[in-house]
Amino acid sequence: MTATLERTAPAASSAAGRGGSTLTGTGSLVRFILRRDRVRLAVWTGSLVLFYAYFTAALGIMGETEGALQARGALMETPSGIVMGGPGYGVENYTVGAAMANEGTVWVVLALALMSILHVVRHTRAEEESSRSELVRAAPVGRHAPAVAAVATLVLVNAVIAVVSALAMTGVGGAEEMPLVDSLGMTVGSGLSAMVFGAIALVFCQLVEHGRGATGRSVAVFGLAFAIEVAGNLREVPGGSTLSWFSPIAWAQQTRAFVDLRWWPMALSVVAIVVLLVAASMLASRRDFGGGMIATRAGRPDARESLRGPLALAWLQQRTALLWSCLGLGLMWLASGTLIPEIGDMIGDLVVENPAMQAFFGGDTSQLEAAFLGAIMLYGALCAAAYAIVMGLRPKAEETTARAEVVLSAPVSRGRWLGAQLLVAGAGTVVLLAVGVYALWAGAASVGVTEPGLGTYTEVLVSYVPAVLIYLGLTAALFAWIPRATAAGWALLAYTFVIGMFGGLIEDLPEAARWISPFHWVPEPFVADFDAGSFAGLTAVAAGLLVLAFVGFRRRDLQST
Amino acid sequence: MNSTTTGTTAPAIEIHDLHKSFGAVQALDGLDLTVTHGQVAGFLGPNGAGKSTAIRVLLGLLRKDSGQVRLLGGDPWSDAVALHRRLAYVPGDVSLWPNLSGGESIDYLARLRGKVDTKRKDELLERFGLDPTKKTRTYSKGNRQKVALVSAFMSDVDLLVLDEPTSGLDPLMEAVFMEYVREAKDRGTSVLLSSHILSEVEKVCDTVTIIRQGRAVESGTLEELRHLTRSSVTTVVAGDPAALSALPGVHDVATVGTDEGTRVTFDVDNAQIGGVLTALSTLDVRSFTAAPPSLEELFLRHYGEDVSDAAAGSDAGSDDGTHVRPDDRPGKHTRAGSKAGAR
Fold this sequence. Notes:
With 561 residues, chain A is mainly alpha-helical. Helices cover 74% and strands 0% of the residues of chain A. Chain A contains 24 helices and no strands.
């Protein structure tokens, strides 16, 4: 072989050998993703391991008090317990492990599903949309390589989280109380269940052209799965009804970890993941780069008369998201409202059948009904707060894409521009919350429940409005003063959620730690009366944050990439 | 139209000793720039020289660190809204709302400034060949730029601020763009045109300011700038051209033997051109062409110095990047070779 041949032959063979594969370059992309997201993925992993370990420890401390866990188990048979927890395996002998699996699984799946959805969208559709992926795909990288690399890294991260969390749970709880095999059953089952939503996100990434759209639709599917899980579990305690099996969340709960472990429900998750990935790959092969399956329609040649000024544009930008959020939340809360009579019956049966429960709660079961409504209300308020944060981040997106620059170089003041964005965001948040609250009332009224009345619902709505707007104010203030730290709004929401859900569990929690949660200052819904003082206080905080946002944004440089 | 709103003598833009830094990066380092009323001013510099930063300060999007900035007689930061009524801006990389069509975006931007002249809009759409019904996310960079250009040229303003407005346009569209700039000038509109495409500036600008590393390194009318530089001479002579290289102001002499005689090419400082002509007259000139310096050459002289610095400074073999973007190598201001970078 001559030197010339030696030089040309490898090039030719590599072109032929690698050129045919749609997976070429996956390995380098996997390393690239891990490098790029090392902090992000480490934070997710750390937070989840901490969640597992901390609540194992907290439940362990609770278990030291005689009968405390048993009473908690009894609570888990009540409607609000089911809504906030799971199907109720092991409530008759409520151990630390049983409590972890019953109450923790759905929230672990929620966190992991969010991580999975965001990860998949971030590394596939969002990359394509920003045309960064165009650079990558122009290199010798196969058509399916980015998607496969995203899924591979997702599996890796989920596996690491599952193994480390299981070790942490068993380490904290003790191998006697919490055997490693059960810990693994819970963590692996939760990870697989969450990855179903990651796979769903990948399918949406093929269908729609925008990362935001794919994320929104995937999260909506999770909401639906959650509603099915709750409705299914409410129908039959313990164990859940057939309905709950239609939700991937149940496939993690049904492993019955720490009670009577079985592995096969996880197979449902695995099958679903494989089917969804195959579907995504078939769709991906059929579409163009950057395109979706749904063709873009032609638009108007000129703007509507109403598209005048930043306020009209902000409305145009936010109305679709608002419509879908109202529809989703409204329907879920309407359905919850219609459940109230059944809840009443259920509570009645519980108290009659279980004298211990009667001793625990006394004869007054109306409090249990109020607790159910309170739990539903907490979800609604959290959803509205999440909406406030998402919309509060719109100005940042406008700024980083330099669309703000175009508008602010026209005769539009900083205050007018930001005010338009925040006004639409704030009004949307209030509308969303109102739709949720009144849908709950309408659902209850439609099945003949008249107590509490419309006035009480309105009181609850009004008392929550300023608390929810604090999230908008915080996000806006951060945008104005520390744009890099706008994610802190999400941190406050996660904190509020943990305090709202598990605050009662942590006995030695200092009072000040609860104060940080805006919802702590809202009177207990449907139980306590409207409190003008707390309303004024929360309003002052929200207003203060918004003022801060305007002051800050007027004086800072506009950032552009 | 604007003589009533602005004092005819007041400059449209007046920047003196402007500083702006982003953390450790000094983006503007004592920039001076004046655009007199009714003038088309070119603003030249390579990527990262500070052109966009200066424009963003002018638009009140960034806050100056120090220096004086006046825009249409007002303060660009505190009078932003009032001033923006009288100007239109086209950014280099236009980004639009993905769910709006091109036509909707144009109307929206124009309405922020005032009334929409639909007749004018239709004319501009036709001249720029833009389909207004397409969603902006399906537009190419050039088409997004056309959206910004149409909405800018639609409005009747005193000042146009154009930041590399033609970077995505094809030559045909660039010609249309030039036409509208001239038309704006005829109406008395002042124009600040930032660019690194020199031929574009040469075609339409009255004055040019060249900016490098945040400060103006050259500014004046095209005539004045040309005076500072060299003409390229190509001549065929029958005599011996050896004496030419010794003349003051003559650079880069190259000779090639041809059938008719010796073809000589060289550059000459414009101030010394008389001496060259005297010397040539004794050499039996067969043909003679002298080209005025293009801005390209002016430009290369300013950045070319750094190229040669970079080449001289990198012992381990210079990569291509140093030639394309000499400004990426900070701290190399000294004059080293004079020849390598010039061509």
